[in-house]
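Extended Data, panel c. Modelled sequence:
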Amino acid sequence: MESDRQFYMRRVTCERLAAARAVTAEARDRRMLLVKTYLEKLQAISA
């Protein structure tokens, strides 16, 4: 079973890649917002 930390790290990586492939600025911004959210959750787990 995957830990929360592994899950959020995987999602951060996937969303960053998706942001790099995004066609529009709006799509890129949405993906980067998800990255920020996942990183905040990772910080909360580590604290």
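The CA atoms of residues 1 and 35 lie 22 Å apart. This feature is highlighted in the accompanying rendering.
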